[in-house]
Structure formats: C-alpha cells, structure tokens
Amino acid sequence: xxxxxxxxxxxxxxxxxxxxxxxxxxxxxxxxxxxxxxxxxxxxxxxxxxxxxxxxxxxxxxxxxxxxxxxxxxxxxxxxxxxxxxxxxxxxxxxxxxxxxxxxxxxxxxxxxxxxxxxxxxxxxxxxxxxxxxxxxxxxxxxxxxxxxxxxxxxxxxxxxxxxxxxxxxxxxxxxxxxxxxxxxxxxxxxxxxxxxxxxxxxxxxxxxxxxxxxxxxxxxxxxxxxxxxxxxxxxxxxxxxxxxxxxxxxxxxxxxxxxxxxxxxxxxxxxxxxxxxxxxxxxxxxxxxxxxxxxxxxxxxxxxxxxxxxxxxxxxxxxxxxxxxxxxxxxxxxxxxxxxxxxxxxxxxxxxxxxxxxxxxxxxxxxxxxxxxxxxxxxxxxxxxxxxxxxxxxxxxxxxxx
Length: 403
Ligand SMILES: Cc1cc2nc3c(=O)[nH]c(=O)nc-3n(C[C@H](O)[C@H](O)[C@H](O)COP(=O)(O)OP(=O)(O)OC[C@H]3O[C@@H](n4cnc5c(N)ncnc54)[C@H](O)[C@@H]3O)c2cc1C
Prior knowledge:
By secondary structure, the chain is an alpha+beta fold. It folds into three domains: 8-118, Acyl-CoA dehydrogenase/oxidase, N-terminal domain (Butyryl-Coa Dehydrogenase, subunit A, domain 1), CATH 1.10.540; 124-233, Butyryl-CoA Dehydrogenase, subunit A, domain 2; 239-399, Butyryl-CoA Dehydrogenase, subunit A, domain 3 (Up-down Bundle). Helices cover 54% and strands 14% of the residues. It has 13 helices and ten strands. Strands 1-4-5-8 form a four-stranded mixed β-sheet. A four-stranded antiparallel β-sheet has the order 2-3-7-6, with no helix packed on it. The protein has a two-stranded antiparallel sheet with strand order 9-10. The termini are far apart. The chain binds flavin-adenine dinucleotide.
C-alpha cells in the first residue's frame, strides 16, 4: 500500500511557515523587493531564526536534520508566498547545495561559513556556470593547481551566479569546481569552497535580469586564488560527481518552488474570475475558462505528486541507501523539466484571464511569470539538459552520448 500522507510534523511545519510567511512576505512585500532589487535583511534573519535556512543539515552543524520531504514543503511554501521566486532561491540554494557542501566540508569551512549561513548571517552558494557555457560541466575552463601549502591555486571565471552581492555583504562563499587534471576529463575535477571576499576573487558584474530581481545574479573572476587544503570539498578528482549531487538536491527544491508559485497563481486567478463579469455573468461561469483551469489543476496535481515522490526517494537514498544516484536522476530531471514549464504556463494562462490588468505591474502575476521563467532556462540545468538525462536513463547510455 502506498501512503501519500505527510507526517504530523511535516503538516505542522507547513502550517507554521505558511503563517509566518503570510505575515512577513505578503505579495505587496514581494512587489517591493522586486522593485528595490533586494530582500529585506529582517526577512533573511527571520528565516534563519525560524530554522528555515540550511534546515537539511545535521543539528550539530546548525541545521535541524530535516528530511527532504520537509525541505520540499519549505520550498513549495516559499514559492507560494514569493511568486517572484527570489527568496526561494535564497532558501533552496542553501538547503540543497548547503547540504552537499556541508557533507564534504572540513571543520574550518563549517565553522567559518556554514554555521553562520544557517542563522541568516552568512551565505553559501554554487559557482558552476562559466562564460563559455553552463550546461557542459566537463567543458569548463577553471583550473585547480596544487599550491605550496598543500591546497589549490584556482584560476577561472564564473557567471550568472545567484547571490554574489548578498554573499559579499556577509562574507559568504561558493562551491566551485575545476580541472586539476584535464586529461582525465570529468574524472579530473576537484571542488573547493571559495569565499567571495578572498584574495584574488573579483566580482565582475551584477546582471540586469528580467526576473527574480530581489536576489542578485553576478559573475566573479578568480586569479591565483590560493585556498588552503581544508577548503577542498570532498576528495580530489570527485568534483564532477560532487557537482552532480548538488544539482540533484537543488532540482527537487526548485521544482517545489515552481509548484508553490503555480498554486498561488491559480488561486489569484480563481478569485479574479469569480469577481470579474463579462456578458452579464462572472468569468468563472464560462466553460472556456473552467476547462483552462481544469487543465492546469490536472497537470499541477500530477507534477506535484512527482515532486514529492522524488523528495521521498531522496530521503530513501540518504537514509536507507535505497536508490543510487542514476536511478534518482531520471525522476529528478522529470521534476525539473516539468515543474518550471507548468508554472510558466500557469502564470501565462491566468494572466490572460485578467485581460489588460494582467499585463500591468498592478497585477502580481507578471512578477511570477518573469521569475519562474528563470527556472526553465537556468539554475540547475536547462530543459534540454533534463531531457538528456531522462532519455539517457530510459534508452541507455549507448544511445545518448553527448560527446
Ligand atoms: C537567474 C539565474 C540564476 C542562476 N544562478 C546560478 C548559480 O547560482 N550558479 C550557477 O552555477 N549557475 C547559475 N545560473 C546559470 C544556469 O545554471 C545556466 O544558465 C544553465 O546551466 C545553462 O547554461 P548557459 O546559460 O550557459 O547555456 P548553454 O549551456 O550555453 O546552453 C544554451 C542552450 O543550448 C541548449 N543545449 C546545450 N547543450 C545541449 C545539448 N547537448 N543538446 C541540446 N541542447 C543543448 C541548452 O538547453 C540551452 O537552451 C543561473 C541562471 C539564471 C538564469
């Protein structure tokens, strides 16, 4: 028998954060953040005080040992509250990449950077994408050379990186991977924690994005950045695999935030069509609108079920060693392929229900549309990259080699 229910603890967690977000992150506040291009410090600190940031980490490292289903609930609720998906980025990058970074980090990195991020006084993110392209991780140019102190001398450039301005402000840092042995291909990559304010690191720009304006997206250059040995993350030559593990956890949470945002869009739309009249009756009475809604609701429930099933599989992997990374990757990629597109489609359709009002900034929907589109393109892999994984794990590797 399959049990689809949440535990009492998970239900209480959902209720508690929905109530807190309902007070601290209203749609008006989201609009203000979007316009001012920043998240209020009180919001970030409040998320830290609530135990929302890095909740997946063990308690001794500043987390609350939350399972992945609980972390997924958090991501869904944040997407529901902040349809621009700016604050969900802050949450999910840290909850997912933070978990992986913490599992690979030395006590020094934990003490200096990770535990601080858990309280909302720090930031840890992911610096993977390079100017030459983000999809092809094994094609990156960043190099790791052994330095005299037993650590790494790092050179390279990263771009379209979430949270560079916020990280600089609180002296945070990034998971960065590069080649220590290019001849070995993806088996010659290593990862390290690179503090954004470290000697040799220079923030090159803040991109003027079209959406999720309240969190920065920037680039940084690393010129002879010498990190000590205890800033290495995981084993030498495992950087590619560590990167893939970070993607896996983050893709599930990204998908959940898109589900939350899509749910809010439908609710905003339903309120509107019950009020707005045309040809003598509310829009909600027209079957053309009802069928549109039915289509969205059916897709929504199917994709949401997939997202929670995949979070459950992640828990089975980490707690019971039940699924291996490849078995999971197909499900994770199906979530990341479907959820952002579903959210984007939902925003577009509901926005059409609202006619000209939907096209204005008086209506919150355009913020959501701009925000969730970022997840169709980037952040943990494009739609085509998810399709590559899904077909590879369905057809077999011999049919789907990319190089
Ligand atoms: C708002 C935002 C925030 C981001 N934050 C971060 C961050 O915090 N950290 C980080 O590391 N990155 C981040 N990114 C970057 C993101 O992960 C990349 O944009 C993404 O991986 C794609 O890389 P690219 O943009 O270089 O596109 P490319 O890799 O150049 O791809 C361009 C297009 O070609 C397609 N394509 C590529 N290869 C294939 C193939 N083999 N078959 C078919 N199609 C293919 C892609 O699907 C895409 O449509 C962010 C991006 C955005 C938009």
